[in-house]
Amino acid sequence: MVAETAVSHTIIVDDQFSLDGAILFPFDSAVLSEDGKAIIDERTAKYRGKVRDMLDIDVVGYADSVGAKDYNQTLSVERAQAVADYIDARTDIPHNKIKVRGKGESHAEGDSPEDRAVERRVIINVSATMRSH
């Protein structure tokens, strides 16, 4: 008699999510807020323990247009790195699969503090093969 076995189901994930800079970071900072950490935990929870093959995770940081361009470029990289380090510490995503980029200044349509806060965002692109159960 042949025993039935559970079939392993996999799905391909090509996901992108944007993290609001107003929640993640204070102005002129790359230190993650507690609220920012909670949001990253929430957004990455679906990957914990389910990643079968991580193809790529790309973390892209942005800064607002206040200050010098060179400084904002560095700050955008530091913000992306802060998010990547947090993801690395809190998930089983392989460290060598997490790529970090900074895009420097972002340009919003308005110039209010609220508009500039939106510019200080981090976008995460995830490509993976995951177990569906």
Features:
31% strand, 4 strands, four-stranded mixed β-sheet, disordered N terminus, 4 helices, alpha+beta, 133 residues
How would you describe the overall organization of this protein?
The protein is an alpha+beta fold. It is built from four helices and four strands. The chain has a four-stranded mixed beta sheet with strand order 1-4-2-3. Helix 3 links the parallel strand 2 and strand 3. Helix 2 (34-44) packs across helix 3 (69-90). The longest helix is centred in the middle third of the chain and has 22 residues, at 69-90. It is elongated.
What is the mean pLDDT? 80
User: Proportion of β residues?
Assistant: 25-35%
List the secondary-structure elements in sequence, H or E: EHHEHEHE
Helix content: 25-40%
Shape assignment = elongated
Can you count the beta strands? 4
How is the largest sheet built, in terms of strand order? Answer: 1-4-2-3
Structural class: alpha+beta
Query: Sheet with the most strands?
Result: 4 strands, mixed
How many helices?
4
In angstroms, what separates the terminal alpha carbons? 26 Å
Low-confidence stretches: 1-7
Radius of gyration: 17 Å
